[in-house]
Every structure is written in structure tokens, then in C-alpha cells.
Specification:
Helix content: 25-40%
Strand order of the largest sheet: 1-8-7-4-5-6
Strand content: 15-25%
Number of domains: 1
Structural class: alpha/beta
CATH superfamily: Glutaredoxin
Shape: globular
Length: 186
């Protein structure tokens, strides 16, 4: 004989958990580090790009970098990618670069076709759990970091963030690094 109360409880708990987790993932987190003295160095890594070349984050020192952890199956990631492509075009001549770190378990077999289908114009690397752990663990996708020219984390975005939030942060870092340090993320 099945205890109906126990059965209802067992069915309700997973449903509530799924609702809570999906709601939690939809809440974007925006963490700027306004005080430059408190910015932490972005952990360096060596990851392969689509051509098999090893890329280090430190290769981009001197540039403002948007470091994006994403996956091909992630709906919010797909919404942000066109923005990042536009940012790459708009700001690359001012010392800006986007680096996408795919966290897809299926690796290049799903990532390369996605890159081609979307005509991504920025460098994509294949990440792993160890890379995510360097950044304190990637709790949700997308997770993106704005990194200043000195290689320090200026902003962390967790979840789908507004396009304007990204662009404002990029512009402030580019302005600050071109002379007006006081403008950085104020």
C-alpha cells in the first residue's frame, strides 16, 4: 500500500527544487569592483582555441577583456553572443577583446559548428571544470567577467545581464585606461 502523502511529498520536492533553481538562475548578478585597489587578478589559464592553438589569458594583458563562460545549449548565452560580436567589432581598435570559453561537455564537435553557424567574430576556447574552478566555480551560464588592462577583474556578471550593463562597463574601462582613472565604474 502506497502512502499518498509520502508520494505527494516525493513528487512535490523535485518540482519545487526545479522551480527554485530556474528562478535563481534567471536573476542576474552584477558585481562591479569600483575600488581599483581591491580588484583581484584574473586567474590565468591555457586553453585551446578552435585551431588547436593554446591561448593564455595573460596573452591579452594590456587590453580590456570580456571573458565569457558559455555553452551552446544555453539560451541566455545565445542571446548575449550577438552583443559580444558587436562589442568586438566596435571596440577592438581601442584595445578590447572578447574571449568566449565554451563549457560544453561534448567539446569541439558541438562548438565548432555553432561558431560557424553564428559567424562568431571573437576567439572561442574550450573550457573545463578546472578552468571554472580557477574563477571560484561557475555556478550558472552565462558568467562573464570584464577584465581591465592590468589583468584584474573589474566586473562579474552571472546570468543574463542587460546589453547596456556590459557596454557601460566596457566603455568605462576603456575610458579609465586611456587616462581618466576616476571614471572607472563609477
Amino acid at each position: 500500500m502506497v502512502n499518498r502523502s509520502a508520494l505527494a511529498f516525493c513528487l512535490a520536492v523535485p518540482a519545487v527544487l526545479v522551480i527554485w533553481l530556474s528562478h535563481r538562475a534567471e536573476q542576474p548578478v552584477y558585481r562591479p569592483v569600483k575600488d581599483e585597489g581591491k580588484r583581484q587578478m584574473a586567474p590565468d589559464f591555457g586553453l585551446k582555441d578552435a585551431d588547436g592553438k593554446t591561448v593564455h589569458l595573460s596573452d591579452y594583458r594590456g587590453k580590456v577583456v570580456l571573458l565569457d563562460f558559455w555553452a551552446t545549449w544555453c539560451g541566455p548565452c545565445k542571446m548575449e553572443i550577438p552583443w559580444f560580436m558587436e562589442f568586438e567589432r566596435k571596440y577592438k581598435d581601442r584595445g578590447f577583446a572578447v574571449l568566449g570559453v565554451s563549457m560544453d561537455d561534448d567539446g569541439w564537435k558541438v562548438v565548432k559548428p555553432f561558431i560557424q553557424d553564428t559567424a562568431m567574430n571573437y576567439r572561442v576556447l574550450l573550457g573545463n571544470d578546472q578552468t571554472g574552478d580557477l574563477y571560484g566555480g561557475i555556478e550558472a551560464l552565462p558568467t562573464a567577467y570584464l577584465i581591465d588592462r592590468e589583468g584584474r577583474i573589474a566586473v562579474q556578471h552571472v546570468g543574463l545581464t542587460g546589453r547596456r550593463d556590459f557596454e557601460d562597463g566596457i566603455e568605462k574601462l576603456l575610458e579609465a585606461d586611456s587616462g581618466d582613472k576616476r571614471a572607472a565604474l563609477n
